[in-house]
Amino acid sequence: MDPRQKTETTVQGISASNGIAYGEIFLYLQTDLEVPIYQVDASKRIEEIARFDQGLVTTRQQITKIKNEVEQNLGPDEARIFDAHLMVLEDQALIGETIREFEATGVNIETCFNNVSQRYVKAFDEINDEYLRERAGDIRDVAQRVLRNLLGQAAHHLGELAEKRVVVANDITPSDAAGINRSAALAIVTDVGSKTSHAVIVARSLKIPAVVGVRDLTTRVSSGDRVLVDGYEGVVIVNPTEQTLFRYGRIQTEKKTFESRLQAASRLPSETLDGVHVVLLANLEKVEENSSGRDSQAEGVGLFRTEYLYLNSSRLPGEDEQFASYRAVVAAFAPNPVVIRTLDLGGDKPLEGVPGLTHHETNPFLGFRAIRLCLEHPELFKEQLRAILRASAFGRVRMMYPMISGVDELARANAILEEAKEELRKRKVEFDEKMEVGSMIEIPSAAATVDLLARHCQFFSIGTNDLIQYLLAIDRGNDRIAHLYEPTHPAVLRTIKSVVDDAHRRHLPVAVCGEMAGDPIFAPLLLGLGIDELSMAPPSLPAVKYLIRAMKMSDAKKLAADALTMSDPKEIYAMAEAFYATRVKVD
Ligand code: PEP
Ligand code: MG
């Protein structure tokens, strides 16, 4: 081997934005600012606070400018990220604490602001919640900007990238990502990050391939090294050989052709080769995702996770605010149905900003979550129920409760719903008197009592994400045991089968709205088990529809029947994978 030849190294990360790219690395390392510490003379303290105010104003102007640019270039959804940044600048706790620290110590304002913002970042970072960790990123990003302005230092940004490069960074902030020169950034690779971080959302909307979570890659490469980024598989290959490049060149061509086939098929009917229509629905978290839901050709919304309305805000949204959001989604999809799920706060989605509602718990997934919280706060719950009912006058709303564990909870939730209806009748506000009510099946005790629950609702939706974690006792967010989280475990398949049979015996439909529904390897198993509807993230829809159009329902039924006789989850997975591979050829 030629000793000058650098060796090829493959690093596995998390796939964050699809696509394949190859090029030279631009190592983007942001160094933390050096903040000088000095004492401010007592006579200059008012001026020092005025300087702080001016720093905040300048930062606000800069962020507003970026926001407007992003809005023009990318659209309003992406620009909304910067609203979170503008909110940091208005955070009275952060600003007030900085001023109090300054008044108490007399140390220069940048040092006080740096101390306070770092405390906030640390507190958010330590909370085991992806959303709040992203808020930490927002504060860090804005704080750096404020400090630069106070210190009179110009920022480096990725907009300065002139030649085509693969950006490799420890992390990139949403302003970094939005400032990227899209014709120059071939791909983005970051040491940290998750699929849902704001920067990744921007990369996806720019259609720049991205891989995150490659740990310490920035310490092992240099600017100028060549790298191949496979955003589909989350793989980064440093110094790839000619052979690897050749192989990826072929893969890239195949993927592009395949993706255009998927897109072309997504406008065609969702029908199997033996003529069975399969209803495919969209999962939405935010009102703004409306358009991607409709573009995906979903026949409605199978899960609208309303807790994001609460998590995105530092206060509880009132009835009118919620109503406006629900109505926007319902009207956008009318006459197709929209399943609005009532609050699923708690667990991995604690509400930190509102004291007294969620608490620190040792086992949050087994704790004060979702319907349990709502039943203990009937006024809060009723506010949401009234908002959902009001939206039902503008399209077809179906409402469902999360985390139902048995008949008592379902009956109590329905009793509160009746009170909410009565209040609206008194107010002479219109709503759909026949609005259907459903129960999620995501707790084993609910799965075992579907026949009893069926007397109190009109439909079921299986939340496989939670159902699997509770059936197999595997924390769905824990990397350490992620390999044990097996959707093809016989316990999972048998439970789904029994839910479907019990529900169908009582003539109630069953959907799946967990991640299993959007995976073309699992979808035929679910359909074969008798699931009536599949609800998934809009980007998953084309691939699932493509498979449905390439398979027979009779074969899916045989696949599920065979799977039910088997004991090894890996063998069942392999069989489902082969089912997919024999029907869908990527090349
Ligand atoms: C589920 O548990 O499968 C589900 C759809 O709900 P969430 O992922 O919001 O808990
Ligand atoms: Mg769930």
Keywords:
587 residues; alpha/beta; Glucose Oxidase, domain 1; Enzyme I, Chain A, domain 2; TIM Barrel; 24 helices; 48% helix; 13% strand; globular; binds magnesium ion
Topology readout:
Blueprint: E1 9-12, E2 14-17, E3 20-28, H1 45-73, H2 76-79, H3 81-89, H4 92-105, H5 109-126, H6 130-151, E4 165-169, H7 174-179, E5 185-190, H8 198-205, E6 210-212, H9 217-220, E7 226-230, E8 235-238, H10 242-265, E9 279-284, H11 290-295, E10 301-305, H12 307-311, H13 319-333, E11 337-341, H14 371-376, H15 378-391, E12 396-401, H16 407-427, E13 436-441, H17 444-447, H18 450-453, E14 459-462, H19 464-472, H20 490-505, E15 510-512, H21 523-528, E16 533-536, H22 541-550, H23 553-565, H24 569-583
Parallel strand pairs: 3-4, 4-5, 5-6, 9-10, 9-16, 10-11, 11-12, 12-13, 13-14, 14-15, 15-16
Antiparallel strand pairs: 1-8, 2-6, 3-7, 7-8
Helix pairs in contact: 1-3, 1-6, 3-6, 4-5, 5-6, 13-15, 15-16
The structure holds phosphoenolpyruvate and magnesium ion.
The site of phosphoenolpyruvate (PEP) has 10 residues, from strand 10 and helix 19.
